[in-house]
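Job type: complex structure
Entries:
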Amino acid sequence: MQRLGGWLYPAGSARRTTVVASVDDSGELSVETPDGALRAHWAMLQVSDRVGDIPRRLTFPGGEVLESADNDAIDRMERRWRRRRAGALLHLIEQRWRWALGAVAIAGVIGWLTVTQGVPYAARRIAFALPADTLASTSAQTLAALDRLVFHKSTLPEARQAQVAALLARVAAAAGVPARFRLESRDGGRIGANAFALPDGTIVVTDQLVELAENDEQILAVLAHEIGHVDRRHGLQRMAQSAALALVALFVLGDVSQVLGVLPTTMIESAYSRDFEREADSHAIDLLNAIGVPPSSLARFLERLQASHGREPGLSWLASHPSTPERVRAIWNRAQR
Amino acid sequence: MNDVAVTPAAVTPRTLVFEFRGQAGQYFRIWIVNMVLSILTLGIYSAWAKVRTKRYFYGSTVLDGASFEYHGTPWQILKGRLIAVAVIAAYYGASYVNPLAGFVFLGVWLVVLPWVANLSLRFNARVSSYRNVRFDFVGGYWRALLAFLVLPMLSPLTLFLLAPVAHRYLARYLVQGYRFGGRPFSAELRFGRFYLIYLQVAGTVLLGFLLLLGVMVVLPMPGRPQSTGMEIYFAFIPAILLYTIALLAVPFVRAKVRNVVFNALVLEGGHRFASGLGPWRMAWIAFSNLLVIAVTLGLMTPWARIRVTRYVAERTAVYPASDLSEFVSALPQGQQAFGAELADMAGVDIGI
């Protein structure tokens, strides 16, 4: 004999009576109500699944409802008079911290794999599946925006610009796609010595960079690095990564992602960006080797570049590029192989 | 307590305060299991997850010893979700093939939005019950169109002078639509109260913004001449303003509006309600919840949800005119979750 306290409601009515139901050893439940005795075998009852400790709802075939928070007694009856159902198993899992912590670990691993492997992989596949000229119009817009905001007209002599263009043609030929790349010279304004690769193959080199280089080999090294960005479609990959990350952030953080999710996503995107730089560096070394320029030119120029820009900015985990010493070391290591 | 003096027949005026019995630790385990199973089943389990979550929150909300109940079933939710996903996929497919088709789709979406919103409200109401009696929602297409689309779209055009009107209309639409045991709710909502709320908020936001601006101007930039440092700060002003409004003003307004609506709310039969949310407290809870969730990479989401639900429940009360025994409801059959799921996925925010 098992007793079960709760409230009994007639079908569809809010009129409630405090009752104590009893279940006998054959599984027959009986309860006294103001409308007379109510009887039903346990297996005929519709019993709501257990979630936490919320009250259960036992619906009789006639529509009467017994609301009871006596969860453990109900679970015992369920086990005894009904075959086990998935709902009970779920509660079993949800009840234990061990399982919950296991779930945290699984979620962590899935999250980690998604961010370190899944997103970059998907972005790479997407970037290479799209036609190469997908971002042609975006590239033109980006250059126009940079022209308006940062750059000034190049003051480099025409002849020197032509020489740099010839250097670009030389590396591009080694890369196997001579026609895709096009040089744009600009006065870098406040950003000084720098070079940019746009997805459509436009490579912008600032006058300051050309002047900073000690020799043409160093310019070749920079151009090879930028060609690496275009060749590996880093621009397209970056856009795909941002979109994928936004989706992930939305899933994990919900609405929070719009406001404070900015920092974590920025950190992750910076890490992706540093990977792109490393990839472009190693790509550059292969190209330089192919045209007979010592890869040390790239290392040497990076050091000059850093000296001209002053100290390394702080916050390495927010930096878009790996630190110069790290890059120089990596270049030497690769060059020696 | 000595209740000998209380005659059973006489209805004593009672105040029933809502109680929330959910616990962060317990909900955390439900939440994380839901999350992992949803990922491992590629989203299919999310329908079960939703039902378990809803049941936990409804079942933990207690009034006069009885809890609320959620009756939606995972299969209903899953079916609704699949249809909703198909609709959204069709939209993206159409706009990928032809941007014009995307626009046409968007136009159709605006036309059907009030209908979808009504379906959503109706589904969610009909699968909710208290003391064995179901809720319901009875809407109308044109009033929903006005409440969800026309007025909210007009209010920016009037520099938000119309925003309180729009908010009041939405609140009134929702109040008048809900039923409990077939009986309607009503509320006498005055324009003045809504204008007052918006005026207060606009004033507070403006004051805070001016204060912030003052701090920025006074604050010297370390190691640099002032003129070059300032532009960097000014670039952030629109973002800061936006975040302040989103994080603080929205919960602030919602708390105040909820108080106004609940304090005027009457369920047929003379049952009255009360809500005493502290607007600053709500803003603080919303803000600190966001911060905690972001810092813990989402792991504290369950705690944050429990926290806000508990606060709202404990600040809400009912003054029943009777012991509610007279309420009855017919069991609604064959509910379709499609509208509710579509509204959820399309990010339609329904509520006051």
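Summary: The radius of gyration of chain B is 23 Å. The mean pLDDT of chain B is 84.
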